[in-house]
Amino acid sequence: MQTSVKVSIRKPYKIFGSRPAAVLPDVLTGMSKADLLAGHNHVLGLRDINIDIHEGQITVIMGLSGSGKSTLIRHLNRLIEPTAGEVLVDGENILTWNERRLRDLRRRTMSMVFQKFALLPHRTVLDNAGMALMTQGVPRQGYEADAIRWLDQVGLGGYGAHFPHQLSGGIQQRVGIARALTSNAGIMLMDEAFSALDPLIRTDMQRLLLELQSELHKTIVFIKHDLDEALKLADHLVILKDGQIVQQGEPQHILLNPADPYIEAFIGDINRACVLRVRSIMRQPVGDEFITGEIGADDTLEHVIAVSRGNLACLFRVVNHHGPIGILDMPTLVRALVPRRPSGAVSAD
């Protein structure tokens, strides 16, 4: 079911330098990032971005270093001002808002979870968790119960009196998430929030986020450079290169339908069996077919391979909570494991 659009990003351009407005016409007429730097000593951060961020979904924006993903997320709460374009929140262009409305946006509507935790070292875990409400003028007795509740939700019951330096990185990041949740903001911005964590802790944090999201249905914008993590989290995936969108859409669709050779190379090292879902490659039944067994629509292809024990003759009925929705045969599964050459790719032969 399609949800309503919470945030719309409409044609923002961001040029870093001493005279961004003066060189904007050159960018609008097609000047490349390299030529802009060489000819005008300005850096092109974003070019003509268009994204609809849907309410209650996780939108992951990713790309290589320098692609513009961290620049883009900071436009959503105007920590960075665009050179041109619009950012709409609930249909209103926040670029027209004054400082008072922007402060209210950052305190009440959007929370942010940072890569480096950004906890106040002289404040306890409880006070850090309640920081958003504290900045709104809420006294301690007014935010304490909410902060304790969210600390409990992220597995930190009993940590309230500790200070950040007494905590591991994984626990500090949990405090950051609790702080974002205590603010009661409907939109959460997460800038590489798990990247500083060890792999096992990062996996645990991914699980925690998905568990919380299944209950809370926040609108989450997550900046990532790790494709495996993005595919686990994203409802909508946006891939940037040099400040521009190369492809965006449902992650399964991007995996099966890369837009160009760059995307094909970008996803080339992914273990497709672990991330592709049955629902993405199933088909409709044809006549009377002998069914070997049933599988779930969201099962991975790796799971199906294990269930089939490698038997290519297996034919599975695909079901979800409403009942049967399709069929999956093993030859179709095997073909899906082979990356498809994108349109326009040049053969190596």
Automatic annotation (TrEMBL):
GO terms for biological process: amino acid transport; glycine betaine transport; response to osmotic stress. It holds the Pfam family ABC_tran. One of its GO terms (cellular component) is plasma membrane. Its main location: membrane. Keywords: ATP-binding, Cell inner membrane, Cell membrane, Membrane, Nucleotide-binding, Plasmid, Transport. One of its GO terms (molecular function) is ATP hydrolysis activity. This is Quaternary amine transport ATP-binding protein. It comes from Paracoccus liaowanqingii.
